[in-house]
């Protein structure tokens, strides 16, 4: 099999940078200017903004089990979209009462709902 070295691989199309107000075009999520800033922001968030107890909870077997139960109960569908007459695959199992607000409800099935990313993002705006 011969490879034509003159052919260039197809590149992703240019799209606007995801940074609010930035009009730079990029093939990635963020332009070169904001890509660097986002990395630093995430490092600071991971170092100073995350709660290690909550982080370890989300890695626990107990959470994995109850998350799976909630997803199965909801038939893998976003409950918000379903209530509006749309069938959309759920991507996230959401705590109705946040873990930081009431630690005791973290594993309660009644405190969990399956959501799509769009509905989950609306919940956390």
Automatic annotation (TrEMBL):
SMART domains reported in the protein's UniProt record: HNHc
Record InterPro entries: HNH, HNH_nuc
Membrane spanning stretches: none
Signal peptide stretch: none
Protein name in the entry: Putative HNH nuclease YajD
Record Pfam families: HNH
Keywords: Hydrolase, Nuclease
Domain HNH nuclease: 65-121
GO cellular component terms, A-Z: cytosol
Keyword Cell cycle applies: no
Family: Belongs to the HNH nuclease family.
GO terms of molecular function: endonuclease activity; hydrolase activity; nucleic acid binding; zinc ion binding
CDD domains given in the database record: HNHc
PANTHER family registered for this protein in UniProt: HNH NUCLEASE YAJD-RELATED (PTHR41286)
């Amino acid at each position: 099999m011969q490879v034509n070295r003159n052919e260039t691989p197809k590149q992703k199309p240019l799209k606007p940078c995801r940074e609010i107000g930035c009009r730079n075009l990029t093939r990635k999520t963020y332009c070169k200017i904001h890509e660097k800033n986002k990395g630093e922001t995430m490092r600071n968030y991971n170092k100073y903004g995350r709660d290690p107890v909550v982080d370890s909870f989300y890695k626990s077997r107990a959470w994995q089990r109850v998350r799976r139960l909630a997803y199965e109960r909801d038939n893998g569908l976003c409950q918000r979209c379903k209530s509006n007459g749309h069938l959309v695959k759920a991507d996230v199992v959401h705590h109705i009462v946040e873990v930081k607000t009431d630690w005791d409800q973290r594993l309660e099935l009644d405190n969990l709902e399956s959501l799509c990313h769009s509905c989950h993002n609306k919940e956390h705006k």
